[in-house]
């Protein structure tokens, strides 16, 4: 079965790799040697072939990354997010409390009026 490679999906995958690497580099731990090798090899395969895997058991053939590769990219991305979300609230900006309005019940707008049942 021939593989269909969508250049838009490949471009999105390359951007996701770049964003994950940039965010992880900003974290205090930085990128490990394995993560750097992984991102560079996946990026190279995406540029050369349009996809980073060939086995249909590892993901959809139309996807540029396999399921595991996507998982690892998300984990690397989360590594960089730890720094931004770990900061406690400093009290400068009060956090808003979300208030919910009660909703009106849904009414039908079909032009029919309810009628009472009239037995004969």
Automatic annotation (TrEMBL):
This is DNA-binding protein. It comes from Candidatus Phycosocius spiralis. Residues 79-120 are annotated as: Disordered. Residues 87-100 have a biased composition (Basic and acidic residues). Residues 101-120 have a biased composition (Basic residues).
């Amino acid at each position: 079965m021939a593989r269909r490679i969508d250049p838009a999906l490949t471009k999105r995958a390359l951007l996701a790799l770049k964003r994950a690497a940039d965010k992880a580099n900003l974290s205090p731990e930085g990128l490990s040697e394995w993560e750097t090798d992984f991102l560079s090899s996946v990026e190279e395969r995406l540029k050369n072939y349009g996809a980073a895997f060939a086995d249909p058991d590892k993901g959809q053939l139309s996807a540029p990354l396999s399921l595991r590769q996507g998982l690892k990219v998300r984990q690397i991305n989360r590594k960089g997010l730890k720094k931004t979300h770990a900061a406690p609230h400093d009290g400068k900006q009060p956090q808003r409390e979300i208030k919910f309005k009660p909703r009106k019940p849904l009414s039908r707008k079909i032009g029919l009026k309810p009628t009472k049942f009239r037995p004969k």
